[in-house]
Design a protein that fits this description.
alpha/beta; about 20% strand; about 120 residues; Rossmann fold
Amino acid sequence: MARYLVDGMNVIGSRPDGWWKDREGAMARLVETLERHAQGSDVEIAVVFERAPREPLGTGAVEVLHAPVAGRDAADDEIVRLLEAEQAPGAVTVVTSDRELAARVRATGAAVEPAHAFRSRIE
């Protein structure tokens, strides 16, 4: 089974489609897209946001996580914390195009997939 940790806002920001006008809506659309991809496939997906969404997102096919304290790089720090707690971080792929986060992820032994490529593949 493939396991993914998705840097939510990085994937959302990989396409300038006006997401900044409705951040909550963009988060919901990403989770819906991830759920469609996860359903009926052999993948496990968790998406990490900088802050909790106002309303619960998804139906449970995708785990929706957020940093414990919102702030700059908070989701990045949470992704690294999750990887460091993993028994087998090498079995996880982190979806991000953030170079600094990618370097931190690779240092844990996890793989990285660029946000734009992942988004194109799942849509």
